[in-house]
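Can you please make up a whole protein chain along with its backbone structure tokens because I've never seen that pairing?
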Amino acid sequence: MNYAIYTRALETIGQKAPEMVPKILSGRYKISHKNVVDLALLTSDEIKKVGRRIERSQQPFVQYNSTRQEIQNTMGQASSNDSPSNPSPSNPSVKDMPAFDPDAEITALTLTIPSWASSIKRTRTNTDFDRISNYAKDKLTETLIDLQHTISKMLSAIKEEE
């Protein structure tokens, strides 16, 4: 799967139903790349409908087969409601070169950071640090400090460009 296509699909979903993107990126909704692309083809109301149906399962994480079924059901209903004058968008050919997007790297990073933040928050909330080994604590501390330095460098680079 081309990550640029996946990123554009997430951006489209974010424009239509912003509450869905963090749930997808955090792993709350387990949706394959193909199904994320399919989900992006739905209308705002249809995406929200899929989200409501997925939430009804009331499980901590929704599995691939559940999300795939909801997306396919919704797409099937949408296509049966379409008139012949509204053809579905065609998939781009492998030969079609996408236009250069100077924001692609930043957009991809912006879409992945919420999943990191969610993982850190979940770990902080659900971990009894008194029971964790010193080795694991030291490795996590080292990694977080490295991340902190990387973030500082990125913020400096952004400020230099302003």
